[in-house]
Amino acid sequence: MCMTSIVIAGAGYGGVMAGRKFEKAMQPFTLINKHSYHQFITWLHEAAGGRHRIDDYKVELSEVFRQSIVTQIKDEVTFIDRQQRKVIGKKGEYPYDYAMIALGSAPEFFGIKGLAEYSLQLRSIETARQIRTHIEQQFTAYREDQDETHLRIVVGGAGLTGIEFVGELMDWLPDLCDRLGIPNNRFEVQNIEAAPAILPALSENLQTKAKKILEEKGVRIRTNTKITKVEADAVYLESGEVVHAKTIVWTGGVRANPVLKNSGFTCDGRGRAKVNAYLQSIDDERVFVIGDCASFESAGRPLPPTAQLATQMGDVAATNLLALSKGEQMVHFQPKILGTLASLGRDVGVGFIAGMQTSGTPAGIAKELSKVKYLWQLGGLRMVTRNRRSLVREY
Ligand code: NAD
């Protein structure tokens, strides 16, 4: 067994996959994470949109890593001190021989005035809970004063996050209205997108299908419409129009965790640390950077920050870190985009798998099956059995 000191910063998709690899190799490591749990971030639209219990969208790290070789520390990383080879947290300092930085991303506000202050963002279990509670409170308040703005929800951005969230809302809000005794033709969901089309990650054909499905469900999709300013209860558009709404959710993009830039890593325009073919920071071979924190060039542009790629990076970076520590040859990271699926509510979706397009119910089923696949990667049959009933639809 190698006694190299390894610190993983962050227990998102990349961090836990790297940890799983070390655990299988019986390599001790320290895992530092802000929370005691791993969150299923890519399914949070379901949590915010009323599908299942919010706490089902997380799993305690002590359930993911059950071996004594894993030291788990609940702390928030604030700095990577490459000179002293220490990961610095709010509560302590953690020396390393090799570090794996997997601290995820933060919302990108593009300097839009009022956006950070007055919008809700879908980025954690707690913000999902906040969004769900906020919507329930607004709908309840409508019963008191009949102010229609309580029932208007504006979602800024029609990337995968925004689209999956509005799809989910359209399945939940009619039930919420029924529960509260509100006529369910009163609420309005506007999805506002600056670009000419929704879902930039998908083909034109799938964009069109997704738009049609969502419009049939009742979403008001507004493309070529840019948000320029936000105030409490008001969204300002480039055209001069002001949309009054008591719920404003921003899903307009992400940038890497600011710790990388603040720690002096060479970063791209979205704050992601540039890495080489082995996923090492170009500034320091002892530091591997993965997931949303890494700027890895493929076909001339950085890879998108997705969970799928983060898990692949975690696996390869852990293999490389072990190889480097033993003086062995590392391998190049070769990203494989196996598919992209967007749910459009509880039953249907759009996307592609292995180059084949899918939409409607088959895409919805494929999306549910992709959850099982991830649970299997995370902890085999034990993790699938633990979570399947609470998170995956029965067919
Ligand atoms: P995104 O960057 O993919 O989409 C944000 C959208 O907001 C863009 O279409 C952009 O044009 C729009 N926008 C930006 N500024 C605006 C403005 N001022 N007014 C109106 N619209 C504006 O962000 P995302 O959806 O949060 O996704 C982030 C990453 O996570 C992406 O790489 C995505 O692929 C990935 N992701 C994947 C899945 C999945 O695989 N199912 C789910 C969620 C996110």
Automatic annotation (TrEMBL):
What family classification does the UniProt entry report for this protein? Belongs to the NADH dehydrogenase family.
Ranked from the top, the taxonomy reads: Bacteria, Bacillati, Bacillota, Bacilli, Bacillales
Name the InterPro entries for this protein. FAD/NAD-bd_sf, FAD/NAD-binding_dom, NADH-Q_oxidoreductase
Known Gene3D superfamilies for this protein? 3.50.50.100
Q: Oxidoreductase: is it a keyword of this entry? A: yes
Source organism's superkingdom?
Answer: Bacteria
Identify the residues that the record assigns to the FAD/NAD(P)-binding domain, covering every copy: 5-314
Q: Does the keyword Oxidoreductase apply?
A: yes
Question: Which cofactor names does the annotation list?
Answer: FAD
- State the PANTHER family in the record: 64 KDA MITOCHONDRIAL NADH DEHYDROGENASE (EUROFUNG), APOPTOSIS-INDUCING FACTOR 1
Q: What would be an example GO MF term here?
A: NAD(P)H dehydrogenase (quinone) activity
One Pfam family of this chain: Pyr_redox_2
Keywords from UniProt, A to Z, are:
FAD, Flavoprotein, Oxidoreductase
A single BP term in Gene Ontology: aerobic electron transport chain
Name under which the protein is recorded? FAD/NAD(P)-binding domain-containing protein
